[in-house]
Amino acid sequence: MKAKHQRLVLVAIALVALVCAGLLAAWALRSQASYFYVPEQIAADPPEAGRAVRLGGMVEEGSIRTLPDGVTTAFVVGDGKARVPVRFAGILPDLFVEGSGVVAEGRLNIDGTFVADNLLAKHDENYVPRELREMTEHQKREVVAETEQGA
């Protein structure tokens, strides 16, 4: 076999291997994708039960309650058009409060309850770190100036 033919065969084998590796990676990752839903979308076209998804919306006022086991928290996520009951067993994020934004990662049960494995609390654009809340405007400016000088 001539050297030219050998190189052509090697290039063809490398291309086939590269395409196969890409297809294998895409097939393996398809089940790992976590789609984002808002309550209105879940009400209109819910994902199949047990599929990993993310639910985003606002924690409704007066909906947070701790269940008798002392670890599980139940609350309702809404978007003004629909509501989805959520259960979460674990430690709640510091920013998790009624009326705040939340992204829950988990699965929808057959009964329509979203069982969250993880909660991500969102803050609004007026967020102020806990350390700066009780400072005067003058103290805040001094802290910012000190931080900028140290950088």
Describe, in plain words, how this protein is organized in 3D.
This protein has helices spanning about 5-30, 40-45, 135-150, and strands at about 35, 50-60, 65, 70-80, 85-90, 100-110, 115-120. With about 150 residues, it is an alpha+beta fold. A five-stranded mixed barrel has the order 2-4-5-7-6. It is flat and about 80 Å long. The mean pLDDT is about 85.
- Judged by helices, strands and strand pairing, the structural class is alpha+beta
The proportion of residues in beta strands is 25-35%
Strand order of the largest sheet: 2-4-5-7-6
Oligomer kind:
single chain
Report the order of strands and helices: HEHEEEEEEH
How would you sum up the major sheet? Answer: 5 strands, mixed, barrel
Main location: membrane
Subcellular location: Cell membrane; Membrane
InterPro entries: CcmE, CcmE-like_sf, NA-bd_OB-fold
Function: Heme chaperone required for the biogenesis of c-type cytochromes. Transiently binds heme delivered by CcmC and transfers the heme to apo-cytochromes in a process facilitated by CcmF and CcmH.
List strands and helices in order, with pairings.
Layout lengths: L2 H27 L5 E3 L1 H6 L7 E8 L5 E2 L5 E7 L4 E7 L11 E8 L5 E9 L14 H14 L1
